[in-house]
Specification:
By secondary structure, the protein is mainly alpha-helical. It is about 80% helix and about 0% strand. The chain folds into 2 domains: about 55 residues; about 160 residues.
Length: about 230
Protein backbone atom coordinates (compact mmCIF):
# COMPACT_ATOMS: atom_id res chain seq x y z
CA UNK A 1 0.00 0.00 0.00
CA UNK A 2 2.79 2.36 0.96
CA UNK A 3 4.59 1.59 -2.30
CA UNK A 4 1.47 2.48 -4.29
CA UNK A 5 1.16 5.80 -2.43
CA UNK A 6 4.85 6.59 -3.03
CA UNK A 7 4.53 5.64 -6.71
CA UNK A 8 1.45 7.82 -7.04
CA UNK A 9 3.24 10.76 -5.47
CA UNK A 10 6.20 10.30 -7.80
CA UNK A 11 3.91 10.20 -10.83
CA UNK A 12 2.16 13.36 -9.68
CA UNK A 13 5.50 15.05 -9.12
CA UNK A 14 6.72 14.06 -12.58
CA UNK A 15 3.52 15.36 -14.12
CA UNK A 16 3.92 18.70 -12.35
CA UNK A 17 7.54 18.94 -13.48
CA UNK A 18 6.56 18.16 -17.08
CA UNK A 19 3.82 20.77 -17.02
CA UNK A 20 6.27 23.30 -15.56
CA UNK A 21 8.80 22.60 -18.29
CA UNK A 22 6.13 22.95 -20.97
CA UNK A 23 4.96 26.22 -19.43
CA UNK A 24 8.52 27.58 -19.28
CA UNK A 25 9.17 26.50 -22.88
CA UNK A 26 5.95 28.15 -24.05
CA UNK A 27 6.84 31.28 -22.12
CA UNK A 28 10.31 31.39 -23.72
CA UNK A 29 8.81 30.95 -27.20
CA UNK A 30 6.31 33.67 -26.43
CA UNK A 31 9.02 36.00 -25.18
CA UNK A 32 11.13 35.33 -28.28
CA UNK A 33 8.15 36.11 -30.51
CA UNK A 34 7.48 39.31 -28.59
CA UNK A 35 11.15 40.34 -28.77
CA UNK A 36 11.16 39.69 -32.53
CA UNK A 37 7.95 41.66 -32.96
CA UNK A 38 9.43 44.54 -30.96
CA UNK A 39 12.57 44.52 -33.11
CA UNK A 40 10.51 44.49 -36.31
CA UNK A 41 8.36 47.35 -35.03
CA UNK A 42 11.44 49.41 -34.13
CA UNK A 43 12.96 48.75 -37.55
CA UNK A 44 9.71 49.73 -39.26
CA UNK A 45 9.54 52.97 -37.27
CA UNK A 46 13.16 53.72 -38.15
CA UNK A 47 12.48 53.22 -41.87
CA UNK A 48 9.29 55.30 -41.63
CA UNK A 49 11.07 58.31 -40.13
CA UNK A 50 13.97 57.91 -42.53
CA UNK A 51 11.51 58.06 -45.42
CA UNK A 52 10.00 61.23 -43.96
CA UNK A 53 13.48 62.73 -43.67
CA UNK A 54 14.25 61.63 -47.24
CA UNK A 55 11.15 63.41 -48.52
CA UNK A 56 11.95 66.73 -46.84
CA UNK A 57 15.72 66.78 -47.37
CA UNK A 58 16.80 69.14 -50.15
CA UNK A 59 20.57 68.63 -49.94
CA UNK A 60 21.37 66.01 -52.59
CA UNK A 61 24.28 64.43 -50.75
CA UNK A 62 22.27 64.02 -47.53
CA UNK A 63 19.31 62.76 -49.53
CA UNK A 64 21.49 60.05 -51.08
CA UNK A 65 22.93 59.17 -47.66
CA UNK A 66 19.44 58.73 -46.19
CA UNK A 67 18.28 56.63 -49.14
CA UNK A 68 21.30 54.33 -48.77
CA UNK A 69 20.63 54.00 -45.04
CA UNK A 70 17.12 52.78 -45.84
CA UNK A 71 18.52 50.45 -48.52
CA UNK A 72 20.87 48.95 -45.93
CA UNK A 73 17.97 48.32 -43.57
CA UNK A 74 15.93 46.60 -46.28
CA UNK A 75 18.92 44.41 -47.19
CA UNK A 76 19.22 43.23 -43.59
CA UNK A 77 15.45 42.74 -43.44
CA UNK A 78 15.76 40.30 -46.36
CA UNK A 79 18.21 38.16 -44.42
CA UNK A 80 16.04 38.23 -41.28
CA UNK A 81 12.98 37.27 -43.31
CA UNK A 82 14.76 34.25 -44.79
CA UNK A 83 15.85 33.17 -41.31
CA UNK A 84 12.12 32.94 -40.52
CA UNK A 85 11.42 31.18 -43.82
CA UNK A 86 9.53 34.12 -45.31
CA UNK A 87 10.82 34.08 -48.91
CA UNK A 88 8.19 36.50 -50.26
CA UNK A 89 9.08 39.14 -47.69
CA UNK A 90 12.77 38.64 -48.44
CA UNK A 91 12.16 39.21 -52.16
CA UNK A 92 10.14 42.33 -51.39
CA UNK A 93 12.87 43.65 -49.09
CA UNK A 94 15.56 43.16 -51.74
CA UNK A 95 13.37 45.00 -54.24
CA UNK A 96 12.90 47.87 -51.78
CA UNK A 97 16.66 48.03 -51.22
CA UNK A 98 17.19 48.24 -54.97
CA UNK A 99 14.63 51.03 -55.30
CA UNK A 100 16.28 53.03 -52.51
CA UNK A 101 19.72 52.54 -54.04
CA UNK A 102 18.35 53.86 -57.33
CA UNK A 103 16.98 56.92 -55.54
CA UNK A 104 20.39 57.49 -53.98
CA UNK A 105 22.00 57.22 -57.42
CA UNK A 106 19.55 59.79 -58.83
CA UNK A 107 20.28 62.20 -55.98
CA UNK A 108 24.03 61.85 -56.51
CA UNK A 109 23.58 62.55 -60.21
CA UNK A 110 21.78 65.78 -59.24
CA UNK A 111 24.74 67.15 -57.25
CA UNK A 112 25.67 70.28 -59.21
CA UNK A 113 29.24 71.19 -60.08
CA UNK A 114 29.92 74.92 -59.89
CA UNK A 115 31.96 76.86 -62.43
CA UNK A 116 33.89 78.36 -59.51
CA UNK A 117 37.07 76.42 -58.73
CA UNK A 118 36.76 76.34 -54.94
CA UNK A 119 33.08 75.44 -54.96
CA UNK A 120 33.65 72.80 -57.65
CA UNK A 121 36.29 71.24 -55.40
CA UNK A 122 33.73 70.96 -52.60
CA UNK A 123 31.22 69.49 -55.05
CA UNK A 124 33.80 66.88 -56.03
CA UNK A 125 34.34 66.00 -52.36
CA UNK A 126 30.57 65.48 -52.01
CA UNK A 127 30.64 63.15 -55.03
CA UNK A 128 33.55 61.22 -53.50
CA UNK A 129 31.78 60.83 -50.15
CA UNK A 130 28.58 59.71 -51.85
CA UNK A 131 30.39 57.11 -53.93
CA UNK A 132 32.11 55.78 -50.80
CA UNK A 133 28.73 55.37 -49.09
CA UNK A 134 27.46 53.57 -52.18
CA UNK A 135 30.49 51.29 -51.96
CA UNK A 136 29.64 50.54 -48.32
CA UNK A 137 26.13 49.56 -49.41
CA UNK A 138 27.57 47.30 -52.12
CA UNK A 139 29.74 45.49 -49.54
CA UNK A 140 26.80 45.08 -47.15
CA UNK A 141 24.64 43.58 -49.91
CA UNK A 142 27.42 41.20 -50.94
CA UNK A 143 27.92 40.09 -47.33
CA UNK A 144 24.19 39.52 -46.82
CA UNK A 145 24.00 37.59 -50.09
CA UNK A 146 27.00 35.47 -49.13
CA UNK A 147 25.61 34.66 -45.66
CA UNK A 148 22.28 33.66 -47.16
CA UNK A 149 23.96 31.27 -49.60
CA UNK A 150 26.12 29.76 -46.88
CA UNK A 151 23.61 29.51 -44.04
CA UNK A 152 20.09 29.65 -45.42
CA UNK A 153 20.04 28.22 -48.94
CA UNK A 154 19.32 24.69 -47.71
CA UNK A 155 16.10 25.90 -46.10
CA UNK A 156 14.70 26.96 -49.48
CA UNK A 157 13.39 25.00 -52.42
CA UNK A 158 15.21 25.32 -55.73
CA UNK A 159 12.46 27.60 -57.03
CA UNK A 160 12.63 29.85 -53.94
CA UNK A 161 16.42 30.04 -54.10
CA UNK A 162 16.25 30.95 -57.79
CA UNK A 163 13.86 33.81 -57.01
CA UNK A 164 16.08 35.16 -54.24
CA UNK A 165 19.16 34.85 -56.47
CA UNK A 166 17.40 36.73 -59.28
CA UNK A 167 16.47 39.55 -56.89
CA UNK A 168 20.03 39.86 -55.61
CA UNK A 169 21.50 39.68 -59.13
CA UNK A 170 19.27 42.53 -60.30
CA UNK A 171 20.27 44.68 -57.33
CA UNK A 172 23.99 43.92 -57.56
CA UNK A 173 24.08 44.60 -61.30
CA UNK A 174 22.38 47.95 -60.70
CA UNK A 175 24.91 48.81 -58.01
CA UNK A 176 27.79 48.01 -60.36
CA UNK A 177 26.37 50.20 -63.14
CA UNK A 178 25.84 53.04 -60.68
CA UNK A 179 29.37 52.74 -59.31
CA UNK A 180 30.90 52.84 -62.79
CA UNK A 181 28.85 55.93 -63.66
CA UNK A 182 29.94 57.68 -60.43
CA UNK A 183 33.59 56.92 -61.01
CA UNK A 184 33.29 58.23 -64.58
CA UNK A 185 31.69 61.46 -63.43
CA UNK A 186 34.37 62.01 -60.80
CA UNK A 187 37.09 61.63 -63.44
CA UNK A 188 35.27 64.13 -65.65
CA UNK A 189 34.86 66.66 -62.83
CA UNK A 190 38.53 66.31 -61.87
CA UNK A 191 39.47 67.02 -65.50
CA UNK A 192 37.12 70.01 -65.67
CA UNK A 193 38.63 71.49 -62.50
CA UNK A 194 42.12 71.02 -63.93
CA UNK A 195 41.07 72.74 -67.16
CA UNK A 196 39.51 75.54 -65.12
CA UNK A 197 42.73 76.15 -63.23
CA UNK A 198 44.58 76.41 -66.54
CA UNK A 199 42.01 78.76 -68.11
CA UNK A 200 41.22 81.84 -66.06
CA UNK A 201 39.85 80.00 -63.03
CA UNK A 202 36.46 78.97 -64.45
CA UNK A 203 35.35 75.35 -64.53
CA UNK A 204 33.99 74.45 -67.98
CA UNK A 205 30.79 72.56 -68.65
CA UNK A 206 30.55 68.92 -69.61
CA UNK A 207 33.38 67.23 -71.50
CA UNK A 208 33.56 63.88 -73.18
CA UNK A 209 34.22 60.99 -70.82
CA UNK A 210 37.77 60.77 -69.52
CA UNK A 211 39.17 57.22 -69.89
CA UNK A 212 39.87 55.41 -66.62
CA UNK A 213 43.56 54.98 -67.51
CA UNK A 214 44.18 58.71 -68.04
CA UNK A 215 45.79 60.15 -64.86
CA UNK A 216 44.14 63.28 -63.45
CA UNK A 217 42.17 63.88 -66.63
CA UNK A 218 45.24 64.71 -68.69
CA UNK A 219 45.01 64.90 -72.48
CA UNK A 220 41.26 65.20 -72.36
CA UNK A 221 39.13 66.04 -75.34
CA UNK A 222 37.92 69.60 -76.01
CA UNK A 223 35.23 71.13 -73.83
CA UNK A 224 31.66 70.79 -75.09
CA UNK A 225 29.98 73.54 -73.12
CA UNK A 226 30.19 75.99 -70.27
CA UNK A 227 28.41 76.74 -67.04
CA UNK A 228 26.93 74.33 -64.52
CA UNK A 229 26.39 70.61 -65.00
Amino acid sequence: MKLKIIAGCLMALLSLMTLSLVAVSAQEVGEEALDRADEEAMAARSVFWSRIRLFFTMDREKKAETALSIANRHSLDAEEALERGDVERAEASIGKAENMANRAKESIEEIDVSEEIEEAGRNLEALNRSRERFEEHRKLVENVHSRILEDLSERMTEEQLARVEAAFSSHEEGIERARNAMEQRERNVEARIRIGRENNGKVPGEIEDVPADVPNGEDTVPVQGTGRA
